[in-house]
Amino acid sequence: MSEDKLPEILLSLEIDDPALADRLAALLGNVAGLRLAAPGERAAATVVARDPRARPEDIALTQRELDVLALMAEGASNKMIARQLGISVHTVKFHVGSLLDKLDATGRTDAVAHAARRGVIEL
Amino acid sequence: MSEDKLPEILLSLEIDDPALADRLAALLGNVAGLRLAAPGERAAATVVARDPRARPEDIALTQRELDVLALMAEGASNKMIARQLGISVHTVKFHVGSLLDKLDATGRTDAVAHAARRGVIEL
DNA sequence: CTCTGTCCTGGCCACCCGGGCAGTTTCGCA
DNA sequence: TGCGAAACTGCCCGGGTGGCCAGGACAGAG
């Protein structure tokens, strides 16, 4: 019939449990017609698995931190965030610092990416 | 050795596109060690795919820009990106500038957020 | 009442970032 | 064959960022 030109289906993995991720990667890597996506590559579908136990659910962020985080995700600078929230730039930097710490991020860009990945914020 | 105590991995499908769902079901149904979950059955992982209509075409980014963008999304600094790609910091800044322009972003955080929103990259 | 946590503010400083300038090579396409 | 796009590199500079120090106000828990 037509096993002719169907392109490979790109699959990405989002698995919390490393062991499960390994097994799935091994299993899926050998399936003809499938290919695992490289980091950053856009996949046609994603395999997700959330370990119900290992769910910190939402990380413990204070309300103010969530405010700052939301504005950060909009690309706002500390100065803009300060004006928006009616607080000083120093305070914004303070909250940003806490955010970097809690989200285990190295910078604001990383923080937003991490937050989005963990569902703390919606892009 | 021990194929003994590895139970089958239960996979459920959440695919908007019926055609893609069909192909994936066919592909995954024949993989030893995997089993597709019956409706209502609790799966270890879920294969999800967004509606393909909801992708407003990729913005015209060059390959190098995509490289830089992917690393930016990982929270890498210009210096780290330069080392990673084997180019100079100045060149990285050049590409970042193009990215900010094309993505209509005010900074690297905004660029990553926009790119993720438009599906250019996967977080 | 003390202690803890959250929120807020200030200053200082090294570094990073973004944008401007100008220049090279390489490659594909008309 | 010439021309433009892409990729790459350099320097300069103002402003932003992140990390550190210090402090105070205020609410709730023990």
Low-confidence residue ranges of chain A: none
User: In percent, how helical is the residue content of chain A?
Assistant: 40-55%
Side by side, the strands of the main sheet of chain A go 2-1-3
Shape of chain A: elongated
What's the architecture of the largest domain in chain A in CATH terms?
A: Orthogonal Bundle
- Please write the string of helix (H) and strand (E) elements of chain A: EHEEHHHH
* Oligomeric state as shown: homodimer
According to DSSP, the number of beta strands of chain A is: 3
Our count of helices of chain A gives 5
Q: What does the average pLDDT of chain A come to? A: 84
Our measurement of the CA-to-CA distance between the termini of chain A, rounded to an integer number of angstroms, reads 43 Å
Largest sheet of chain A: 3 strands, parallel
Based on secondary structure, the structural category of chain A is alpha/beta
User: Which topology of the largest domain in chain A does CATH recognise?
Assistant: Arc Repressor Mutant, subunit A
Q: What is the CATH class of the largest domain in chain A?
A: Mainly Alpha
At the fourth level of CATH, the homologous superfamily of the largest domain in chain A is Winged helix-like DNA-binding domain superfamily/Winged helix DNA-binding domain
Number of structurally distinct domains of chain A: 2
Beta-strand level of the residues of chain A, as a percent range? 5-15%
**Biggest interface, chains and residue tallies:** A-B, 43 and 43 residues
Overall radius of gyration of chain A: 19 Å
